[in-house]
Amino acid sequence: MSPSRVYVCDDELLIRMWLAEHLAEGGYDVSTFETGGACTEAFHRQPCDLVLLDLKLPDRSGLQVLEELRAADPTLPVIMISAHGEVETAVAAVRAGAFHFLEKPVELAQLLVMVEQALQTRRLLGQLERYREGHRWQFSDVALVGRSPALEKVADTITRLGTRGTPSTVLVRGESGTGKDVIARAIHARGPRQDNPFLSVNCTALPETLVESELFGHEAGAYTDAKQTKRGLFELADGGTVLLDEVGDMPPPGQAKLLQFLETHRFRRVGGVRDLEVDVQVIAATHRDLESAVQEGTFREDLFYRLNVIPIELPPLRERPEDIVPLAAHFLDVLTQEMSLSPRGFDEDALSALESYPWPGNARELRNVIERLLLLTDDECLSVELLPPEITGASIPPDEAFPLPSSGVELESVEKALILQALERTSGNKSRAARLLGISRDTLRYRLEKHGPQRPTAPWEISVQAVERDGAPGWRPTRPS
User: Fold this and answer.
1) What is the pLDDT of residues 327-337, one digit of tens each?
2) How far is 280 from 302, CA to CA, in rounded Å?
């Protein structure tokens, strides 16, 4: 972790030199200033962790400087230094927000103790603020639920990382909804950084023009709207972990800056002139095929290899069906507790239906289905009849089913043809087509991918054009000429 930064503001050169020398020996990063204006200007460019401030300065009073500093950062500890006979003024300064005051001549032992107390108080206030924001890095209850060999392998990797305390970069790969963020939080919770910040950012949601500012921060005046200095994600997470979710969608300029940071763990804020160094473990997650993205030129090859130090592959739920029932039971327990409901359970037929469904939305879809069940029914035993029709396949009543021709049919062709008719009727709108078919939009997308963009051989005469819709292969049906 980088050393605490301390500013010393006093008009007497010998006092400034004496304070700077002993604070530096104590391991602090010290900067000195003769005037209050120079101190506040430096603080706006490069915030510090503590200020030692004289009450009498050549250009303004220490009380004015205190007011300016506290306006910029209300949690900043300021220790006032007063000459003999200025105690009443010093007490007024404490009432105005100063941490404490020291009377000249300053005793070294008292100074070092007070500096450490002030910095510790600042750290505690920072932790309290993070608790108020929602316990963003308290993950003692993080659980990986399942019994598949693939999940056991992932759990073993996480255990090894926690045991060895390595800060190596981790790349978690898997489809959307598989729980990549849970893996990242488990790595943090079971490692030596568990008591420090865990911060995450979705790279898809970062505008290209703001990537560098969000990750590395900016100085006041760096661009038009940068009115105050801002600490970036990596600086805020110093000593902890940063999750870069959907890193495959990061714009190229951000990729270059990220690669440089991963190589050195040093960076500059936007508009800054000073390198900052932090101790952060980076976990990247993506659903994209990064090898293909490298070949297409949309993702840097050197960044891919730098991220892929510790690879973790999380297979989709359909490839580990033995995890479905344990996950369903886990979500059922968690949600009943959150909703203050009595314990619930599934019957055997319901569990079989859950295991047979391909879950294109993975664990996220499973959790949503269970939440819907708990909201819409009071039954303590959740039966198969309560499950959505896309899971049970019971969307068409038996007496309304299509008659089976005597010559038989090719089932996949019929399914493709029905999907195409629904898409044609809705002008390619997948959400409306899914409602016509009695399935979810995710299920429709999964079945489109399963069949591939091919023209069906079915009784209905529909021509099909392969297109890209919503970032995935799909069909756009068109009427024959």
Assistant:
1) 888 888 889 88
2) 20
Give 76's Cβ-side CA count (13 Å radius): 26
Does the global pTM surpass 0.70? no
| Cα 235 from Cα 255, distance rounded (Å) | 18
Residue type, 349: D
Confidence at residue 126, expressed as pLDDT on a 0 to 100 scale: 61
CB count in 10 Å sphere of residue 420: 23
Cβ neighbours of residue 128 closer than 8 Å, sequence gap 6 or more: none
Q: According to the 3-state scheme, what is the secondary structure of the chain?
A: CCCCEEEEECCCHHHHHHHHHHHHHCCCEEEEECCHHHHHHHHHHCCCCEEEEECECCCCEHHHHHHHHHHHCCCCCEEEEECCCCHHHHHHHHHCCCCEEEECCCCHHHHHHHHHHHHHHHHHHHHHHHHHCCCCCCCCCCCCCCCCHHHHHHHHHHHHHHHHCCCCCEEEECCCCCCHHHHHHHHHHCCCCCCCCEEEEEHHHCCHHHHHHHHHEECCCCCCCCCCCEECHHHHCCCCEEEEECHHHCCHHHHHHHHHHHHHCEECCECCCCCEECCCEEEEEECCCHHHHHHHCCCCHHHHHHHCCEEEECCCHHHCHHHHHHHHHHHHHHHHHHCCCCCCEECHHHHHHHHHCCCCCHHHHHHHHHHHHHHHCCCCEECHHHCCHHHHCCCCCHHHCCCCCCCCCCHHHHHHHHHHHHHHHCCCCHHHHHHHHCCCHHHHHHHHHHHCCCCCCCCCCCEEEEEEECCEEEEEEECCC
pLDDT of residue 91: 74
Q: What residue ranges of the chain have pLDDT lower than 70?
A: 1, 84-87, 124-142, 393-404, 406, 431-432, 435, 452-481
> What's the confidence (pLDDT) of residue 286?
96
State the pLDDT at residue 84: 62
Confidence (pLDDT) at 382? 85
Give me the pLDDT at residue 464, please: 31
